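The aim of this short unit is practical: by the end, you should be able to scan a pair of folded records and say something sensible about each. We start with the first protein, listed as its amino acid sequence and then its structure tokens.
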Amino acid sequence: MSDLTADGKIPLVVQRMALQDIPEVMAVEKESFPLPWSATAYRHELAQNEHSHYVVVRQRGLSRVYPRRRWIDRWLKKPESQPPVIGYGGFWVLGEEAHISTIAVHPDWRGQGIGELLLAAMVDLAVALEAQVVTLEVRVTNIVAQNLYRKYLFEEVGRRRRYYRDNNEDALIMTTPCLDDPVFLETYHRRRATLSERLSKPVTSGHQGATSDKR
């Protein structure tokens, strides 16, 4: 399994999350969750939690516009920063299990397959890290996210009562088959091919889609 964005045909790029990404991640976080994690929590995840693995997604090859950019920066040709983070996700590898802790897409960019791209990227990374299954929690009311997970053969295996602190909503526990299961692999490769075709078309902000999901 390889990175869907590696060949450059998709106008998006998935990268490992870095400490300098945290301010942009927090901007998406605050738009996505009623009880957002703090920047300190993300710094801990990236710098101190050896079990954690986080990725971000950006548009490819675009520069931000700085209408009031200082003349000295223009004169020095100081490089502009990368395009902003529009989505991110992360998981912990605990034994043979990759447990997705968060996945979020900025509201302006939902409904275009970016959440699915993040999910596929995390499955790819989990395989590379020799995890055997991928698991997560999802709100019982988040039907759109549940349908996405079921496309990749996640199945409901349990329920956590009153799991979400903001409204005491239950969480469904959903888990993949073994990642080397032939049925899973065939489904996974087929879904990735369809996603790649979808994402090869231009993506723009302003759409609405699935809500984000957090452990």
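Turning to the second protein, read its sequence before its tokens, just as you did above.
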Amino acid sequence: MPVRLIAIDIDGTLLDSRWQLPAANLEAIRAAVDVGVEVVLATGRRFDFARPVLDLVPPVRLVIVSGGALTKRRDGVTIARRTMPRATARRVLEATTAFRQDMGVVFDRAGANQIVYERVAWNDPRQRAYFEHNRRAVGEVSPLEACLTDDPIQIMASGSVERMRALAATLAGMPDASGFEVALTEYPARDLSIADVTAAGVSKGSALAALAQSRGLARNAVMAIGDNHNDRSMLEAAGFPVVMGNASKALKASGWTVTASNDKEGVARAIERYILDRTEN
């Protein structure tokens, strides 16, 4: 069965290492849509943070955001929402107080307080640019548990690779760890890692599988392209998983098809070769 649906990660995949969209990637996406393939973006970013990228790719009509917790149309309308029960979020926060300075709670709401921290570390060199870019959406509540007036979609944390691995280990050791999912995104060259905690069964992969099912598509009609640990579930959900040339060694070791890096238009190369049946350059 030919591929009818492609899910593409944003950071490290669709965008190059300067966070720019290569023209060849946009052209390939346009060509895929023109032959009847639906293309969606799938990211750990919040919708507002993903919107500027979505604006660069007009053929894309849907985006999976917040690690699979939300699927939205490009106009912001939510078509699938998978929240984390407040009780679960509270247990996660109470078990990770040692990491409190790194953690924020994310809600599906407009305007302020989309991301709530106990204290915003405005001067943290790893997070300063992110906080500045998202200034209007960030709020502070102390203690952080007090922000849980409604169900969040995600708890997120960022810090060094070692620290986020320690956070993930702490979460894995909780007695009720089966009640939530943890996905790590790592950038070793920058010593930066992002940990996303969502409700049980929520991931990029489950969101992609649900979307494919809603389209009546079998797994082998789905392609996914990604580069990092948090893309694994999405790649596993696709019948045709493609790993970027700049992907982590662990992801490449999975035996999946490898395309060029994000700085060499790997998304375009994959679409051209495997969807448009063009000879790889």
